[in-house]
Structure formats: structure tokens, C-alpha cells
Amino acid sequence: MTDTTTTDSASPAPSRRALIGWGGAGLALGAAAAGGAVAIARPHDDTESAQAATGGAVAFHGAHQAGIATAVQDRLHFAAFDVKTTERAALVQMLKDWTEAARRMTAGRAVGEGAFGGLAEAPPDDTGEALGLKPSRLTLTIGFGPSFFEKFGLADKRPDALVDLPHFPGDNLEKSRSGGDLCVQACADDPQVAVHAIRNLARIGFGKVAVRWSQLGFGKTSSTTPDAQTPRNLFGFKDGTSNIAGTETDRLKKFVWADDGDGSDWMAGGSYLVARRIRMNIETWDRTSLQEQEDVFGRDKGEGAPAGKAKEHDKPFLKAMKPTAHVRLAHPEANDGITILRRGYSFTDGTDGLGRLDAGLFFLAYQRDPRKGFIPLQRRLAASDALNEYIQHVGSAVFAIPPGVRDQNDWWGRTLLTEEA
Ligand code: HEM
Q1: What does the cofactor field's note say (predicted)?
Q2: Is 311 a member of any domain?
Q3: Which residue of 32, 67, 175, 209 pairs with 205 in a disulfide if CB–CB is 3.0 to 4.6 A?
């Protein structure tokens, strides 16, 4: 089963305004489907770029949550939340409300009764800034952090794989940019659509959850569509060359999706997300010679080819790279096959107060088990990576990403929070 239903490239996506015009808030996604605007598509194929161009919709329902194997969108708004309510029923109701809002927003529709036209005495259901914008391949992906399981008597449901990340050498983590009971990753090709989505979820959650930290991202630094041009990170290098593609069902099953045999039945079809805010010292990097830059990664800057090879997708010969080269240390062959799905974004958030840009990579990695993915990899990189001279990890969080919402009656977290589940 694919997790991405995308708008048929031949049928441009309806805009939020158009949907409102067609009968407003009461119309379900089915109405669009009936009108022929929505068709099942493969997770990624030739139509992906056309879908991006037409601002299409990615299906919200599926065995896995969208936003993981989905072709990476251009923009990110990521938010971590603290749970404030102590009432389980209130939290469950909020998750149901979030799910319904997510279902609508990912289809390009306004929340609830919309941004206008309702009761003049009450605030509108939707904040309005996405009116007239297309779905823009918006995906919303929810996760539960380790601290969530300390609440509502859920300790015995905490998956063994959801470990607290250890301290790694060089970590300089800020508490205000780390952790969180819940997270929502919003990815879209239009930044306003992603921001609108997080804002409206935060608004719906008012009094029950509070935003702990959030991160905007641009210029995706990885690709799950190898045929497409590989994006570049803020060091100017192609990033995401060697990644799991959204079409590689076998590798996704092996390395990304949790299985019911993995120990937590409620997580079957889910995944684990490690988020790291990595500051990049771009000013230092920009004064570094090209040779040194290429040696740091073990790939050349122009083509992105591995050291000693001609083309980006040539198989790396690790011994041709410096022993401390990032790719040599991170490559599966050097790590007993360890493979993660990277889905990070660049950021610049003003200055650091010392005359430098607060810029970097918001690193997002999905895997079946962080104990067999990010943790051993990062131990290795933290110990020896030549890149460490130019980067610093300043934020960190880990989340259990539950399976997909199956249908109209399902909701985010049901397999975890339904008593009999
Ligand atoms: C600011 C920090 C980082 C930067 C700028 C960066 C950049 C890069 C670049 C340019 C590549 C080569 C192209 C590619 O295959 O994607 C790469 C590969 C890779 N990176 Fe990073 N990276 C960073 C942090 C990390 C971290 C924290 C991890 C994991 C703990 C990681 C894991 C990997 C892996 C697994 C590969 C692919 C290696 C291969 O299969 O050849 N990277 N990275």
C-alpha cells in the first residue's frame, strides 16, 4: 500500500478558494475525488514534478504516515509541543480534532467552517492565511516523544526503540530547542501552507498543548527521488545523493518501517524520527580551501562524485577518501549496513549575536530503530568526522512516529491511546 495519493498531474489541484467556492467546508475530499481531481499515484514517478508544479495534494490516509517516504517538499515547519492537560480524554479529543483538521488542510481545505462566513460573534475556525493557496503537497506527520509516555499511565506502551538519545561528544544542546512530548512535521512546497498548518494545530490545541520549540526550514537537504536533481546544503554540496528512495519498498520495510514483530504492536507501520538542529559555521567554511572542503565530505563540489570517481551516482570507493571523510564514516559499508532515511532542511534564523548567521541543517532522520540507526552512526561521526570542525549539534529530539491514519474514522495516536489497542 502506498502512502501517497497525489493529485493527478493532468488535473491541477483545486485551490483552497476554489474548494470553498464549490460548496464550502462541508464538502469532503471525496467530493474532489468525485470531480476527478484526485487520483491514486505511485509514491514517486514522472508526475512528481508536475504535481509539485500544480500544487497537488498528497493523500493523508495510508498504512504509513505521509511525509516520510513522500518525495521531499521544498519547505518545512516543524513544531514540538508540551502536553499541558492532565486529562486523557481531553488529549484524545484534541488528537481527533487535529486529525480532522490535518485531513482537511492536506487536501487544501480550510479548517472547520473556514475563515469567514460563520458566526460573527465567534473567532473563525480557520486563521485564513492559506485561503486561495493550493494544497502544495502538504504533509503533516505526528510523533510522540519519550516524555509523553510518562503521562496518562502509558509507561508500559513506550517502545524499547524509543530510547533517550545519549550525549555525543561535541553536543552543545539547548534545552529550549530540544525534546517535546509531541511533534508535528509540516512539509509543503509553499511555506505559508506549512506555517498555516502548524499554527492552526497549535490554535486547536490551546490549553491542552503548548509549543515548546519550532523550526522553519527551506532548501531541502535530501532527496527521496534519486532521478531528480539533488539539492545542495549551505556548504554548497549536493546532499541526499545516497538516501532511501520513496520507491524502494524493500529498503523502506527493512530500515524505516517498524514491524509488529519489533516489540510494540501499536507502532507497526510507524517509524522513529531523530531531529537534530545542527549549526553550520558557514563563515569558517567559506574561508576553507576547496580541496579541504572536498576532503571533508569525500565527494567533489561540482558534480558530487565520490573521491576518485566521475559521476554523482558512481559507487563510492571509500578507501579513496580521507579516513575522516564524512561519507567514508557514514556509508553503510563502513557501518555493518546501517541505513537511515534523511529528510533534513537548511535554516537561517537571524544572527548568533556575534556577527555570524545562525545557520545550519535541521537534520531529520527516519529509521526502524534508532539503536540500530542514528545512535551508532552519530557515535562514529561525533568521534572522528572531519566535518565536526565546522558544525555543532545544538538541538535534539526523538519521537515515535505512529502508523498512518487508515480512513475517515481513524485518528492520530489511536493505536496508542485506545484502551483495547
Ligand atoms: C550539518 C551536518 C551535516 C552535513 C552538512 C552533511 C552533509 C552530507 C553530504 C554532503 C553527504 C554526501 C551526499 C549524500 O550522499 O547525501 C552526506 C552523506 C551522508 N550523511 Fe551527512 N551531513 C551532516 C550530518 C549528518 C549526520 C548527523 C548524520 C547521521 C548521524 C549523517 C549521515 C549521512 C549519511 C548516512 C550519508 C550517506 C553516506 C553514503 O551512503 O554514502 N550526516 N552528508
Answers
A1: Binds 1 heme b (iron(II)-protoporphyrin IX) group non-covalently per subunit.
A2: yes
A3: 209
Which of 348, 217, 196 is closest to 275 using CA atoms? Answer: 217
User: Is residue 375 situated within a structural domain?
Assistant: yes
Range of the domain at 197: 56-416
Q: How many residues does the structure list for the chain?
A: 421
Q: How far is the CA of 327 from the centre of ligand 1 (A)?
A: 6
Gyration radius from the chain CA atoms:
21
Gap from CA of 318 to ligand 1 centroid (Å): 14
User: Vertex 218, ends 213 and 224: CA angle to 5°?
Assistant: 105
Domain count across the chain: 1
Angle of helix 191-204 relative to helix 88-106, nearest 10 degrees, comes to: 160
Of ligand 1's listed atoms, the one at least distance from the Cα of 332 is 40
| Whole-angstrom distance, CA of residue 385 vs CA of residue 323 | 9
pLDDT digits (tens, 9 = 90+) for 200-246: 999 999 999 999 999 999 987 666 666 678 999 999 999 999 999 99
**pLDDT tens digits, one per residue of 2-20:** 333 343 333 344 455 444 3
Q: What is the dihedral of CA 198, 171, 148, 188, to 10 degrees?
A: 20
Q: Which atom of ligand 1 is nearest to the CA of 280?
A: 1
The Cα 230–Cα 239 span in angstroms is 7
Residue 32, in any domain of the structure: no
- Asked whether residue 197 is assigned to any structural domain, the reply reads yes
